[in-house]
Specification:
251 residues; 10% helix; mainly beta; globular; six-stranded antiparallel β-sheet
């Protein structure tokens, strides 16, 4: 049997975490240091690997019920190789260190089991009632695999170089960054998406760190449903883009 498709064979790597291709993650398990992955994202595996639902404590369960933010995880353990993917999204590996990572849980594919994650109320940081929601704060040392819709942009923030991002396109940022949220609109048009420009809320990042932005203003395809009609055109109410995109942290 012959075909050009055989060029897409298993990509061997000495690294524990590696990319099989832009849209598939390859993780090697050696009987220790389990990996936590988003439920349902295993597409293949080799070896003696087991998958168990990850237990969530009472505090995590209450936070999920109150905020809607959290991770549905499975624990991958054993010896072998696991391949993870989700709806053809691009996969990116990030080393988390003392800098910390703040991310929308919808973009997390997998992480080292030794990392700590908790829900934080970012709206209290912004001081804008009803605008911000909740994010995940990931701390410790280890790797996190993030997903984006298309090839992303990683922007460096320095004390003399602020970065402004569309709130619907932001994926993650360094936890140490200071964040301000604002609507680029006149008071008369506060309930529509920046008048007729189609833009809405934006985030301004200050300090030292990095910001990851995707080339899309929607979450992964399973959450990206856009409304119709005049209300959707102006982004208002349940028929607007934010109203229909319920999983978006900035809806």
């Amino acid at each position: 049997m012959q075909s050009p498709i055989f060029a897409h064979n298993d990509q061997q790597s000495q690294e524990r975490w590696s990319l099989q291709n832009k849209q598939m993650l390859r993780v090697t398990l050696e009987g220790h240091d389990d990996v936590l992955a988003r439920k349902g994202t295993m597409v293949a595996y080799q070896g003696l690997v087991e998958f168990d639902a990850e237990y969530q404590g009472n505090s995590a369960t209450r936070a999920r019920a109150r905020t809607g933010e959290g991770l549905d995880l499975m624990r991958c353990h054993g010896q072998g190789t696991v391949y993870l993917a989700n709806l053809k999204q691009h996969v990116h590996l990030i080393d988390v260190d003392q800098e910390g990572l703040t991310v929308d849980s919808s973009y997390v594919l997998a992480m080292d089991s030794g990392l700590h994650h908790e829900v934080i109320a970012v709206d209290s940081l912004y001081g804008i009632s009803g605008s911000g929601k909740y994010q995940l704060n990931i701390t410790g040392r280890g790797k996190v695999a993030l997903m984006t819709s298309g090839a992303p942009l990683m922007m460096q923030v320095t004390p003399d170089r602020y970065v402004n991002c569309d709130a619907d396109a932001i994926v993650a940022w360094s936890t140490a960054l200071r964040v301000q949220m604002q609507a680029q609109t006149h008071s008369s048009g506060v309930w529509r998406r920046r008048g007729n420009t189609g833009e809405g809320w934006e985030l301004s990042f200050m300090g030292t760190g990095h910001v990851l932005v995707q080339p899309s203003e929607l979450l992964p395809p399973q959450n990206a449903v856009i409304g119709q009609g005049a209300a959707a055109q102006f982004g208002m109410g349940q028929h607007g883009a934010r109203g229909q995109n319920q999983g978006n942290v900035w809806s």
